[in-house]
Amino acid sequence: MTPDEFRRHGHEVVEWIADYFETIRDRPVLPPVQPGDLTAQLPAHGPEEPEPMDRILADFRERIVPANTHWNHPAFHAWFSISGTPPAVLAEALAAALNVNGMLWKSSPACTELEQLTLHWLGEWLGLPPDWFGLIYDTASTAGVHALACARHRADPASRQHGNAGRHYTVYCSELAHSFIEKSAMTVGFGLDAVRRVPVDSAFRLRPDALSALIAADRATGRTPACIVATIGTTAVASVDPLPAIAEIAAREKLWLHVDAAYAGAAAVSEKYRHHLAGAAAADSFAVNPHKWLLTPTDLCAFYTRDPAALRGAFSLVPEYLRTDDGSAVNLMDYGFQLGRRFRALKLWFVMRSYGRRGVAAIIEGHCDMAADFASRLLADGRFEIAAPVEFSLVCFRFRGSDEENRALLEAINATGRAFLSHAVVDGRYVLRMAIGNWQTSREDMTKLAAMVTNLAPGAC
Ligand code: PLP
Prior knowledge:
CATH topology of one domain: Aspartate Aminotransferase, domain 2
Bound molecules: pyridoxal-5'-phosphate
Order of helices and strands: HHHHHEHHEHEHEHEEHEHHEEHEEH
Strand order of the largest sheet: 1-7-6-5-4-2-3
């Protein structure tokens, strides 16, 4: 591609993205496609000869986009709703142009230092201790693997040499914690059986008394408790575990405390919601996903630890060909299992500068207000119940009827193409989840959604 061709196609792509953001409401959130539909439209083998960019872009528009679930749609309310905002989209293009690998300070001083600085800024916005060490992983799941590896390192610093060495490590989290904890336990060799799911109270928060009892029972049977994972904003209902009480238990039992604030941690950018992180300062590690509710496109997980020596102890391994002599410089490859590192900090830095803390806080507060308003509208209708306290921008609700009727309601909403919601099972009952996280979602969108839900529910007039 010549520089002039690049300019031409680059302008075309930017035009397309601008139009996409502007007219995205005209598209169905969920594509009306079946498994295999896209594959059937594309050649089974890669091209032998170069193809013109015009044709590639045409296929992108006509085949790829129509088979896409539009996560950037203001009516995307499934799982946790997210935003890839325009400043961050520009930053992603620039990061691809620079194409650095930030494994070492020398391999990209800018990537290394901006990652450290941006995470320091973000830590300040969230009210985290200023001396914590922060770095970026791809996902909260990867953060979980690192937290468990640190926990094992604390329990047995020689574990990097001899692995689990016959010990049966155990990990504690609430019944509602995310499944990445089991996957992390599988990955580090603790095994699925190592994960203890602690019962929750009536507000879906981990019960500290039950946690203490489970730890004691494991010690009594010769197991090695290693880690507690507390969740701020559980996936199903966005409940908040009682961090201060959990932190006390972790300190008493000398266990690694990891806080998974993947979704709701972002709310602490607003002073109004910062109290949800009370107690977090006592954690050993903490993860929040700016790619969930902090206006940053996937993927970007901000991981913090008070004990970076544990991370280095668990993971640092420097072969001769990666040896550099840059004094006190941080080499990010020493802080995890991955070597290569994308310049992810750039998009977060663009977001933080473009919106400012107040701008981000205003969007998050707006989302929470819209969620509360949506819940009130459903309650006012009389045919719905709210299935869990609405703390953030997630509303779990159900039609006062059977699970079957609720499942049918969800299918009917999603079949319109005008919104996409997901479900959970809470207290054994099927509930619908409506999450707000998109920068373009407006009050008008929410009024329309509430009307649609009430119109599609059984018994509508
Ligand atoms: N923690 C919570 C509370 C989540 O809701 C999720 C995903 O939705 C995760 C962790 C896992 O996130 P990731 O996709 O970054 O691994």
